[in-house]
Amino acid sequence: MANSYFLKNSLTKKYWMAASGLFLCIFLLGHLAGNLQLLLPPEKAKDAFNAYALFMTTFPAVKILSYLTYFSILFHAFDGILLTIENNKARPVNYAYSKPSANSAWTSRYMGILGTAILVFLVIHLWAFWAGMHFRSIPTYALADGTIVKDLYSEVYNAFKNLPYVILYVVCMIPLGLHLSHGFASAFQSWGLNHAKYNNLISMTGIAFSVLVPLGFAAIPLVVYFMY
Ligand code: HEM
User: Fold this and answer.
1) 50 lines ligand 1 (CB under 6 A)
2) Crossing angle, helix 10-35 and helix 196-227, to 10 degrees?
3) What pLDDT, on the 0 to 100 scale, is given for residue 170?
4) Beta-carbon-side half-sphere exposure of residue 191 (alpha carbons within 13 Å)
5) Rounded distance from Cα 125 to ligand 1 centre (Å)
6) What fold is seen in the domain 5-87+106-227?
7) How many degrees, rounded to 5, is the angle at CA 224 between CA 36 and CA 43?
8) Domain residue spans in the chain?
9) Can you list the residues of the chain whose pLDDT is less than 50?
10) 82 in Cβ contact with 7 (< 8 Å)
11) d(CA 167, CA 222)
12) Alpha helices in 37-144 (DSSP H)
């Protein structure tokens, strides 16, 4: 795969890194919008969230998007590792005087480490909720229309009544925000969208996205723990 046409040089690697990264940004927006239903009053949230989870796991178009999401995560991680190795190889070994911070923001130099932290979060997260929904037997719930579904709402609610878990989710949103704070704008640059007219707008949107999306995700466990 590493020698495939897609990853034949660092330009194409960066191009597909940007494509998979921006697709995952769209996923995060949809995922946040769906999960904000957890903040509805509990008596309403249980039915709404469980109906949403049923739709997300059964509606064919969404299932295709899910497979594209899984592929994008694996491809983004793999391509990211290749680029990190390539960058480290290209980086000169300690000049008498080398000040990396003079050349790039520290987030851009630690994208590999930030990405790894997000991957560790994802493994914990998918095992807890996604594997429960797809493979493990979890308690069921009857929707208002009588349909019996997996009670994913209670899985998430009970998890967020557990303080160490809440702290884990809140803390893990920091590497996500930092990764996005560089990744969003740099994706557009990798696509050659680098013009004085748009650069400011792209970087402002990137900063807003990298602050608001992780904050939104962090708010869910905090509100459930302290208010419900
Ligand atoms: C408060 C925060 C979050 C909550 C409550 C939450 C909840 C969930 C739930 C319940 C599922 C299982 C859905 C299903 O299988 O149908 C899920 C899947 C998933 N989550 Fe999250 N999530 C949160 C944050 C995140 C973040 C920050 C990321 C990425 C960095 C993420 C990435 C994913 C992915 C990739 C899946 C699999 C999606 C699919 O099957 O299509 N989640 N999440």
Assistant:
1) no
2) 40
3) 97
4) 15
5) 7
6) 3 helical TM bundles of succinate and fumarate reductases (1.20.1300)
7) 75
8) 5-87+106-227
9) none
10) yes
11) 9
12) 42-58, 60-90, 100-103, 106-109, 111-125, 131-134
